[in-house]
Specification:
mainly alpha
């Protein structure tokens, strides 16, 4: 083997390994940055929430918002003057926004049925969502803004250029699900992470993902106030009601995702 050939083998092997793990470091960074940037005001929110619930909620909201300038700082470090790739805000039409809300609501029916089925059959407690500790303002408003800029803004764009569309979509959805810390919510959170990431790839805009995230968290919060999840007791919902929710949710998703409906939505780029 000549000298040039022997030198090419390790380089080819290194490139193969780099391609295999491309985007993994950025994916892990998403978890670190979400917690790091929100940590100071997040601690203040926890301390203030008991004696002053309103002040704690404000601190929690601000804690989530501090993630945004932190992420944009990371984006500027990665891309320099092209840091705006982390904040794709192309305008979209109202039809796309309405379609997004309907898709998220339909998915929530399936997720709710899944949670009730787990309670009814297994009876294990729900582990608290770490993000929920920031209070209602942080949960319904702050978290969607921070997480969309982090996961579907910077994360999706950065991993996409390192490892391609499919890995970017998969990695960001997986980390998005893991940071919420609940095994019961993991399938639903992963699914909505895939959907919101797909929306950004198809539209080139964060607006549909932001609205979908607002819708998801808002409805989830209202439902949690109306009917708190049981701890160790099985859910009281009947199996017929649970199955009915699944059928309604899945039927709605199939109809909304059909070419007949989706083809009429202006702004969904068919290239992906």
């Amino acid at each position: 083997m000549v000298e040039g050939e022997s030198a090419a083998v390790p380089a080819a092997e290194t490139n193969r390994i780099n391609r295999r793990f491309a985007g993994v470091g950025t994916t892990l960074g998403l978890f670190v940055w979400l917690n790091l940037f929100s940590l100071p005001l997040g601690i203040a929110a926890i301390i203030a929430s008991k004696p002053h619930p309103l002040l704690g909620a404000v601190f929690g909201f601000l804690a989530m918002l501090t993630v945004v300038p932190g992420v944009l700082w990371v984006a500027k470090s990665a891309w320099g003057t092209e840091w705006r790739k982390a904040l794709p805000l192309a305008p979209v039409g109202p039809g796309l926004l309405v379609w997004t809300v309907l898709c998220v609501f339909s998915q929530l029916l399936v997720v709710l049925a899944w949670a009730w089925a787990v309670d009814r059959t297994v009876g294990l407690p729900h582990f608290p969502d770490p993000v929920a500790s920031v209070g209602v303002l942080g949960l319904v408003l702050g978290a969607p803004i921070a997480e969309e800029v982090l996961f579907r803004g910077y994360g999706l764009a950065r991993i996409r250029e390192l490892a391609g569309d499919q890995r970017a979509l998969l990695f960001t959805a997986l980390m998005f699900a893991l940071v919420h810390g609940s095994w019961v919510k993991l399938p639903g959170t992963f699914a909505i992470g895939l959907f919101l990431g797909w929306l950004v790839l198809r539209t080139g805009s964060l607006w549909p993902a932001l609205l979908g995230h607002f819708t998801n968290n808002g409805i989830a919060y209202v439902l949690s106030r109306l009917s708190p999840s049981p701890s160790f007791e099985p859910a009281r919902g009947s199996w017929s009601f649970i199955v009915g929710l699944v059928l309604v949710g899945l039927t709605s998703l199939v109809l909304l995702g059909s070419p007949l409906i989706r083809g009429r939505i202006s702004g969904l780029n068919p290239s992906f």
